[in-house]
Specification:
alpha/beta; Spore Coat Polysaccharide Biosynthesis Protein SpsA, Chain A; seven-stranded mixed β-sheet; two-stranded parallel sheet; glycosyltransferase
Length: 251
C-alpha cells in the first residue's frame, strides 16, 4: 500500500506507546518490535537500553530506518535498573502527550497480541490502569519451574496481604497506564528500581484511587537470552513493601 508522506505520517500516528526496557536482548528485540507493529492497532515503541554490550541498541537503530515514525530509542550510559528505565520512558511519553503508556518485556514473556486487550481496557472499558495478570484466573504461567511459580504467586499474595491492594498479580510487569495516572504519581519520588518497582507503581495508583483492572493473560518464560532476576531484587521487594505500607503516601 502506497501512502503519500503526509498521509503516511497520519496513518502511523498513535495514542499509545509501548515501552520496552532492554539489557542484552539481541536475541529477542527485533522479533518483539516486529510483532508489536503487526498488531491491528498502530502502537509506537520506545526502547530504553541500558548500554547493552551485545549490540541491542544497534539492532534497534537499524530498524528505525524501516519504522521511522513508530520506533524510538533512548540509550542510557549504564545499567541503572528496570524502574529507572521505565520512569525515563514515562517522562518521555508524557512530554509527547501519549494517552496510553504500556510496559512490556522484550523477551516474549508478555505476548504482543495482548497489547490491544490492555489498551481496550483503558481506552474503552473505564480502567485507569490495566494489568496483564497471571493470577486473576488461576495460575497462567508457562515454562517456569515450580519453585519460580510458587515464589511469584506467593510474593503477590504476600504483597496483597501487606498492602491490602485488591490485586491478584501485584508484581506483574505487563501494564497499561492512562497518562493522567503517570502525571499524578510523583515519578521522581518512586523509590524502588527492581522487582518492587512494579509493586510501588500499583500501590501509588491504588492509593490515589485510580480504577485498576486485571486482564487475564498467559505468561511464558523466555526461550532466548538470560533472566535479569536476582536475589537482591527479590530482597528489595520483600522488605520494600513493608516500608511502603508503613510510610503510605504523603498527605
Amino acid at each position: 500500500m502506497y501512502l503519500c508522506p503526509n498521509l503516511y505520517e497520519n496513518y502511523m500516528k498513535s495514542d499509545a506507546l509501548v515501552i520496552i526496557p532492554t539489557y542484552n536482548e539481541k536475541e529477542n528485540i527485533e522479533a518483539i518490535i516486529r510483532a508489536t507493529f503487526r498488531q491491528e492497532k498502530v502502537f509506537h515503541v520506545l526502547v530504553v537500553d541500558d548500554n547493552s554490550p551485545d549490540g541491542t541498541a544497534e539492532i534497534v537503530e537499524n530498524l528505525q530506518n524501516e519504522f521511522p515514525e513508530q520506533l524510538f530509542i533512548k540509550k542510557r550510559t549504564g545499567k541503572s535498573g528496570l524502574g529507572t528505565a521505565y520512569i525515563h520512558g514515562f517522562k518521555w511519553a508524557i512530554s509527547r502527550k501519549y494517552d496510553y503508556i504500556i510496559e512490556m518485556d522484550a523477551d516474549f514473556s508478555h505476548n504482543p497480541n495482548d497489547l490491544i486487550r490492555l489498551y481496550n481496557e483503558c481506552a474503552n472499558e473505564g480502567a485507569d490502569v490495566a494489568i496483564g495478570s497471571r493470577y486473576s484466573v488461576g495460575v497462567n504461567v508457562v515454562n517456569w519451574p515450580m519453585s519460580r511459580v510458587l515464589l511469584s504467586y506467593f510474593a503477590s499474595k504476600y504483597v496483597r496481604l501487606i498492602t491490602r491492594m485488591p490485586i491478584h498479580d501485584t508484581t506483574a510487569g505487563f501494564v497499561c497506564y492512562k497518562r493522567k495516572v503517570l502525571e499524578t504519581i510523583k515519578l521522581d519520588k518512586v523509590k524502588f528500581v527492581g522487582y518492587a518497582f512494579q509493586i510501588e507503581m500499583k500501590y501509588k495508583a491504588w492509593k490515589h484511587k485510580f480504577n485498576i483492572k486485571e486482564v487475564s493473560v498467559i505468561f511464558t518464560d523466555r526461550v532466548l537470552g538470560k533472566s535479569k532476576l536476582s536475589k537482591g531484587i527479590i530482597k528489595e521487594a520483600v522488605f520494600g513493601v513493608i516500608k511502603m505500607r508503613i510510610n503510605g503516601l504523603p498527605k
